[in-house]
Amino acid sequence: MITRQETFKKAFELKNKALKEKKDKYNMLLSAAYSANPRLREIENEQASVGASLVLSALSGAEAVNELKKRSSALAAEKKLLLEKSGVRDIVFDCPLCSDTGYTGGKICGCVKKLAAGVMVEELSKEMPLASSRFDNFNLNYYSDRDGKNGNPRRRMTAVLKVCTEYVINFDPRKSRSLLFMGSAGLGKTHLTLAVVSGLAEKGFVPVYGSAENLFMRLEKEKFSSENSGAYETMTDCDLLVIDDLGAEMTTQFSKSALYNLINTRILSGRPTIVNTNLSMKEIETRYTARISSRLIGNFDAYKFIGEDIRQQKAIERVKAKE
Ligand SMILES: [Zn+2]
């Protein structure tokens, strides 16, 4: 997982690098133009003396001033033409809003936020098969269309898929609901959450995804050493926090309170969270605390994934294919 701070740092690095390349190229062309056209230097000298005369002639009447101004614009036009002939063009910025400085009106420009989101997507894809977990390759055929004791898996999962795709379409980091995905392993919880994460990142939001084990480990390092500074802030401030596989980590006093603080802080600030777990609500209460299970019950929309372990089904398919 990469922190929000890191994505912005990288985004600024990318921006500065691109701007430096543009400036370097411009300066190179400019000095080549000056070497090839001695007239450019002459113009510059004359511009300087016209400028000085303008200051002095301010008192000697409007006519003199006008003459000097005319001369000044003629020189500027001649210079522009000579530079154009030498292939020197004004720098065209990628972002006209901030002239590629990354700041506008004292705030970070939207172009940097967009770049940061791109960095996030790239980093996430390194850590996990983001590209392979999309909505369009979520295969409903792995879910039986027959009614079982928990209901009809295909129908249930079609509904959950719809919830997830609409979640991305209508996402609002201050209004979207928090989701709790429950059910045994291998039923597509991670697949669907990753599809949500990459969908949001593509839209320019900043989601943070991690397994419970990984997230708590980062928080612990932040607390007890100087590593991962900003981890807690990133997890509480990001547009969407995904805590995957809650219950698979080793439960400690630290992880219990970290989980509560994360969930509670995000609820209080109106920010959505998605929690995936193989545990039942009763098991969550036993393993963590009643405070946590009551926050989940009260503030999350819960969806129970049903069906048969897809990883097992795929493994069987692979064996069959070899036979
Ligand atoms: Zn900009």
Keywords:
about 325 residues, Rossmann fold, 2 domains, two-stranded antiparallel sheet, 12 helices, about 60% helix, binds zinc ion
Task: Tell me what the structure shows.
It is a single chain. The chain is an alpha/beta fold and 323 residues long. It has 2 domains: 12-85, no CATH class; 128-322, Rossmann fold. 59% of the residues lie in helices and 10% in strands. The chain is built from 12 helices and 7 strands. It has helices spanning 4-36, 38-56, 62-85, 110-127, 153-169, 189-202, 212-224, 231-237, 253-268, 281-287, 290-299, 310-322, and strands at residues 103-104, 107-108, 178-182, 207-211, 240-246, 273-277, 300-304. The strands form 2 sheets. Strands 4-5-6-3-7 form a 5-stranded parallel sheet, with helices on both faces. The protein has a two-stranded antiparallel sheet with strand order 1-2. Helix 2 runs antiparallel to helix 3, helix 5 (153-169) packs parallel to helix 6 and helix 7 (212-224) packs across helix 9. The model has no long low-confidence stretch (mean pLDDT 89). The protein binds zinc ion. Zinc ion is lined by residues 95, 97-98, 109, 111.
